[in-house]
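> call design_seq(struct)
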């Protein structure tokens, strides 16, 4: 499809893009939480989203797998536009993994069961195969020895690595992270960031809300700054950190760096 054709029709997919958000708005009741969000993410691109608390970062990434609904504009993931169509929502959720600040593991299931549940029930994988896949990813996040424990028996850093492994078991094309290290003690932050860095090096398309600016500098292709429901500034990390343009970005960076 030509560039012109894809521009002419806002809901036509561009297959070079993993995610396309166009003129997107969201309200919580009367409150206009996201205002004219435009963002294109290419396959394999790593994007870090930062900004003050309450600026709409979580809401924006939760819209990408329809944990929140947008009211205006377009969100297209892997060529599929998010609408009320439940089949499409399901299709998109299968391709998009998500890790939250509070791991959201099932407390009554073992680590292995947490990881194999969705492949068995959603992908219809035989149990033995799903457990084999789960062990492969638990090895990748360096906790195969914890497979038979329950989440409550693990440290925060280990639980977050389980949450990442659990997402990877579904072979996602895109991973969304919402402050995955914010609830962790400092000594555990690195073990989670190391896993995320490895994922990035393997070419995973990633959108990470994080205030880990070291991570942003080494891993991100682009850094996006949000404030009051808008994308205020975006740039490659070198320019973003050394030469911020917007006053609100400057203020934010001066407070966290
Ligand atoms: P961030 O992740 O950048 O801290 P959020 O996306 O969580 O910001 O929140 C953006 C704004 O929307 C905040 O003002 C927050 O209070 C508000 N908000 C978040 N979730 C809801 C909700 N479910 N209902 C109403 N307001 C909400
Ligand atoms: Mg948030």
């Amino acid at each position: 499809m030509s560039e012109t054709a894809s521009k002419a029709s806002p809901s036509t997919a561009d297959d070079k893009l993993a995610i396309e958000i166009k003129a997107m708005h969201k309200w919580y009741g009367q409150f206009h939480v996201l205002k004219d969000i435009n963002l294109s993410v290419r396959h394999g691109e790593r994007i870090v989203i930062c900004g003050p608390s309450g600026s709409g970062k979580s809401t924006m990434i939760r819209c990408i797998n329809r944990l929140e609904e947008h009211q205006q504009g377009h969100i297209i993931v892997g060529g599929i536009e998010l609408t009320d169509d439940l089949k499409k929502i399901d299709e998109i959720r299968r391709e998009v993994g998500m890790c939250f600040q509070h791991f959201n593991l099932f407390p009554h299931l073992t680590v292995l069961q947490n990881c194999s549940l969705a492949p068995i029930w959603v992908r219809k994988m035989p149990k033995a195969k799903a457990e084999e896949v789960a062990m492969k990813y638990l090895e990748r996040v360096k906790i195969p020895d914890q497979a038979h424990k329950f989440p409550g028996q693990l440290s925060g850093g280990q639980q977050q690595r389980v949450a990442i492994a659990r997402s990877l078991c579904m072979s996602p094309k895109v991973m969304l992270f919402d402050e995955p290290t914010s609830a962790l003690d400092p000594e555990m932050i690195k073990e989670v960031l190391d896993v995320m860095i490895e994922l990035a090096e393997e070419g995973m398309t990633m959108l990470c809300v994080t205030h880990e600016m070291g991570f942003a500098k080494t891993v991100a292709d682009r850094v996006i700054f949000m404030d009051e429901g808008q994308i205020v500034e975006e740039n490659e990390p070198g320019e973003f950190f050394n030469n911020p343009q917007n006053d609100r970005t400057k203020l934010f960076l001066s407070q966290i760096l």
